Amino acid sequence: MPTVEQMFACIRVCQTLSNFYTEIHLFRYDGKREEIYILAGETLGITIFSNGRWEFDDDTET
Fold first, then answer.
1. Residue 31 and residue 21: Cα distance in Å, rounded?
2. Which residue, 7, 13, 16, 55, shows the most beta carbons closer than 10 Å to its own?
3. Is residue 62 part of a domain?
4. Max CA-CA distance within the chain?
């Protein structure tokens, strides 16, 4: 079950994506890792941690 902090962060992130008309393709809660993962737009990945902090995935290849 997501934490309260995670749920509020998720709402903020999803609202921001929506404000920029970015499609959300995948929304997943991983109970084992206790993380929420959102895949949006073409290549935008966001992980929301149990403490409510979030970060963009760094999938850049050199």
1. 29
2. 13
3. no
4. 37
- First-to-final CA distance of the chain: 37
Report pLDDT digits (tens) over 4-55: 999 999 999 999 999 999 999 999 999 999 999 999 998 899 999 999 999 9
- DSSP letter string, 12-62: HHHHHHHHTT--EEEEEEETTTTEEEEEETTTEEEEE-TTS-EEE------
Decide the pairing of beta strands 24-30 and 44-48: unpaired
Tokens of 31: 């109970």
Identity at 12, one-letter amino acid code: R
**Domain-embedded: residue 61:** no
Enter the pTM of the model.
0.88
Question: What does the DSSP 8-state code read for residue 1?
Answer: -
